[in-house]
Structure formats: C-alpha cells, structure tokens
Amino acid sequence: MTTPSTDRMPPLPLETMNPAQRAAADELIAGPRKAVRGPFIPLMRSPELLTRIQKVGEVLRFHSVLPARLTELVTLVVARAWTQQFEWNVHVPLALQAGVTPQAVEALRHGRRPLELPKGL
Length: 121
What we know:
By secondary structure, the chain is an all-alpha fold. The protein folds into two domains: 14-62; 68-109, no CATH class. The chain contains six helices and no strands. The chain has helices at residues 19-30, 40-43, 47-62, 68-81, 85-98, 102-109. It is elongated, with a radius of gyration of 16 Å. The termini are far apart. The model has no long low-confidence stretch (mean pLDDT 90).
C-alpha cells in the first residue's frame, strides 16, 4: 500500500489502522474486490461508512439481476459523465469482457452515444 507523497489522502499503512479500520480493510480484501483501492482509500478514515457503502456497491456490481454487460455499460456511461478516471480505467476491461463492443467503449470515451449497443439491451 504505497502512494506518491502528493496524495491528499494516501492509503493508510495496515500497521497504523485502528481496529475498526483494519476490520473494514480485511473485509474488502477478503471480498470480491481483493484490495483497498480507489474510492475506498479515503473512506478508510470512516470505516463504518466504508463498510456500508462497499456493501451497497458489492450488491450492485457483483450480485445484480441485470446482465453484466448492461451493468458495465452503465458504469462506463456514469464514469464518463463524471470524468471519473478511476472507475473508467477499472471498468473498461470488465465491460469489454462482458460483451460491450470496443466501438461502444470508444464512442463513450469521446462523449458520444454508441451507435451499436450489446444485443439484448
């Protein structure tokens, strides 16, 4: 868990975490995310909030009744709309793997509506 010294909220070293922070980190690491990264780094300062938010996100991402291609497409649309680079970078490969076409990803990257969407949407 290293980070450039310019981060305003760098990752907390495991040895400096209080018990609640360590429990929240352990839960993230043991779950489908496998690590404390991205938006969960600043949330480590509030482990109860982190735990609650990550559980909602886990249900939406990993246990949704929607097909993965739709979930990933929507994630890319929102990441692009908010210029959320972390989410974009994490979800482009997942979207491609789930069946979103490279052309649709490129259209979204450039702020355009994809001409072709995955079948079944």
